[in-house]
Structure formats: C-alpha cells, structure tokens
Specification:
Blueprint lengths: L1 H4 L2 H18 L2 H36 L2 H11 L18
Length: 94
C-alpha cells in the first residue's frame, strides 16, 4: 500500500481513470448535461408562469371592484341598470 502512495503519478492516473469511467462509460456526464439543459427549460417556463401569475393577480384585484363587475355585466351579459331607458320594437317582418 505504501508503494502506491509513494507514486503520485499512478494515483493521479487512477483518479483520472475513475473519473472517465463514471462520466463517460456510466453516462453520468451526459446525464448531468441533460439535467442542466432541463433546468434551463424549467427556469424559462417558471419565469413565464410567474409573469402570468402577476397578470392574473392584477385581474383579480380589478374583478373585486364593483364598478368592474357592473361594466362586465353590461358589456358581456347585455344587462342594464335601472337608470337606462330601453326601447322594444315589434318584429314586423311576419
């Protein structure tokens, strides 16, 4: 055992061989590269989701205001207020 420790070149070669074995032969290097690539994709997706969450929070704050609810009811559901004047015309095409 002391013969091996007295030869640092051999120890470095064994360490390099061990590193090559794990990174190349067992595929850990490719696996780590793939994980790093996936991390970039996930981080990009996360930032876009954070932007959408911020946008939705703003919309939710608007939706809690009564004026917004009244405006949406009038535009989307064609509702009227008690102050509006409505004209109804008969269908004379028959």
């Amino acid at each position: 055992m002391t013969k091996w420790l007295a030869r640092p070149g051999l120890i470095a070669l064994l360490c390099a061989g061990f590193l090559v074995y794990h990174l190349v032969i067992r595929g850990l290097g490719f696996h780590l590269w793939g994980l790093n690539r996936d991390l970039g994709k996930i981080a990009q997706g996360n930032s876009s989701l954070q932007a959408e969450i911020s946008k939705l929070k703003t919309q939710l704050q608007k939706a809690r205001q009564p004026a917004f609810v009244e405006h949406e009811a009038m535009n989307r559901l064609e509702m009227v207020t008690d102050r509006d004047l409505i004209f109804v015309f008969p269908d004379t095409s028959k």
